[in-house]
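LOG
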Amino acid sequence: MTDEVPASAPDVPEGPEDLAAPAAPAAPAPLGLVRTPTGHAGVDARLERLADADHLTADGHVEVYEDVHGGLRDALTALDAPPVPGPYENRS
């Protein structure tokens, strides 16, 4: 056995610059994603709502994502609903 120091010693602060406080996190910034319109007004409005998350910190994204998810789920559910008859289509 030898008393040699391994070539890669653990990171130990060496000077006062190493003891400085960590930098503050960067401010929220838009990702710059392009949202392509779908042609369905309700879906497009929900997708545009995603842009609100661009200006929030990560903990604020949940509310936006849940709102968008709920709206998109409602739009899909509406596609399964039977058509409502017009005023002159009731033939009973």
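LOG (cont.) second protein
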Amino acid sequence: MRNNLLSRALMGIAACAVAFFVILGVMAVLPRALQDALPDNVLGGAAVVLAVAAGRRFARRAR
């Protein structure tokens, strides 16, 4: 059973973790002035969008 609830929850958690680390990596390569100019809400929103996109990709129903 690949699409059970636990599997989907784990995929969602994994997607959130990957999005978080991608955002951290992007922030690490940005210049310091740009890092300081970006509000925290932008970073959090970007992580949520990436996590939702990845979660939808991996948690699709089998046809």
